[in-house]
Design a protein that fits this description.
GO terms for molecular function: serine-type endopeptidase activity. InterPro entries: AB_hydrolase_fold (IPR029058), Peptidase_S9_cat (IPR001375). One of its GO terms (biological process) is proteolysis. Pfam families: Peptidase_S9 (PF00326). The protein is about 35% helix and about 20% strand. The protein is α/β, with parallel strands linked by helices and about 325 residues long. The protein has a single domain (about 30-35, about 85-334), classed as Alpha/Beta hydrolase fold, catalytic domain (Rossmann fold, 3-Layer(aba) Sandwich), CATH 3.40.50.1820. It has a nine-stranded mixed beta sheet with strand order 1-2-3-5-4-6-7-8-9, with helices on both faces. Helix 1 (about 40-55) runs antiparallel to helix 2 (about 60-70). The longest helix is centred in the C-terminal third of the chain and has 15 residues, at about 320-334.
Length: about 325
């Protein structure tokens, strides 16, 4: 069991200012996401221009990269999100370890809002939720009236990147968020869902076993059979060896414990699951979602499977359709 103690926890993410919201709690390092180079669009753009120019890229290519950045992250969108959404990062303790997390929520709420726990992909520092990924993937959902809470997982943003167990004790970092959620102003604690991407889908199922009150799940490009996935992507074994404790001595058991398709019966039959996957995914085989949907059907767990033709791991060709599915799913089930 994880230990998570917060004394006089009063997360009051104010509804009047996205930048200067007052937070009184025993959480540490509570800061606005709109800080440093992200305090204004102009400073972010300038930082990106310096980055592209300093990498030895010829001027024409650097300008092309900057143009791509400005196309994906427009000044209009930045200013809109900043005016409508509060975004804060914080540090919390789990199992005696400092873990970094974040919360994104509408500044003005007309009623108590449902919560989505977002579980990121990647491992260690790779895949950490930085400002750009928040703006691209999470701000649009929060704009729809959801409060989004997430963990970076233990060890992320630290020099000694050796705490992430890829579905081991780091799952406690997600479960511990349930102690934080009731203290966020304006949330409906009875309407909490989970959204996981890639490895984050594995995290979602592992956490959902411990939190049966989760109302709905969405998984994008999720891995559910780690052993079989090695046949599709053998180089993942490097990650497993580096991250998973006892992997060398107990490989099958460790992979099985992290493979949701092996313990479908432990998932709640009251929690519907949305599965989204691209059929050209080179990182996680689409067969994970196909087989998992079949297993969920056999276990009489409600689910919806959508496979996007000719799309990749990040579903870049269907971004709008994916967002519409996610938004509609959580609006319907939370």
């Amino acid at each position: 069991m994880y230990r998570f103690v917060v004394v006089l926890l009063l997360l009051s993410f104010a509804s009047t200012s996205a930048v200067g919201s007052e937070v009184k709690s025993e959480l540490n390092n509570v800061k606005s996401c709109y800080r440093g180079i992200f305090s204004e669009y102009s400073t972010w753009e300038s930082a990106m221009q310096r980055k592209f120019s300093s990498n030895g890229i010829e001027t024409s290519k650097a300008m092309k990269k900057l143009s791509g950045f400005k196309s994906r992250f427009t000044e209009e969108d930045f200013n809109y999100f900043k005016s409508k959404l509060s975004c804060q990062t914080f540090t919390y303790r789990v199992d005696g370890i400092d873990v970094q997390g974040f919360v994104i929520k509408p500044i003005v709420l007309s009623e108590k809002a449902p919560v989505i726990i977002y579980n990121r992909g990647g491992n260690g520092n790779y895949g950490a939720v930085v400002f750009g990924s928040m703006m691209a993937n999470l701000f649009p959902l929060a704009k729809e009236g959801f409060v989004i809470v997430g963990s970076q997982y233990r060890g992320t943003f630290t020099k000694e990147d050796n705490l992430d167990e890829f579905g081991g004790q780091d799952v406690n970092d997600i479960v511990a968020l349930m102690d934080i959620i009731p203290h966020i102003e304006g949330v409906d604690i009875k309407r909490v869902g989970m959204y996981g991407v890639s490895r984050g889908a594995m995290q979602t199922y592992l956490a959902a076993k411990k939190i049966p009150s989760i109302k709905a799940i969405a998984a994008v490009a999720g891995v559910v059979d780690l052993k079989k996935e090695l046949e599709y992507r053998p180089n993942m074994e490097k990650v497993y060896k580096n991250r998973i404790p006892l992997y060398e001595s107990d490989k099958d058991a460790q992979l099985l414990s992290r493979s949701a398709i092996s313990w479908v019966e432990k998932l709640s039959k009251e929690t519907p699951i949305l599965l989204l996957h691209g059929d050209q995914d080179k990182r996680v085989s689409v067969d994970n979602s196909r087989r998992f949907s079949e297993a969920l059907n056999a276990g009489k767990i409600p689910n919806k499977l959508i496979i996007y033709k000719n799309d990749n791991h990040f579903l870049e060709k269907n971004r709008r359709a994916v967002f519409a599915e996610l938004s509609g799913w959580f609006h319907s089930h939370l």
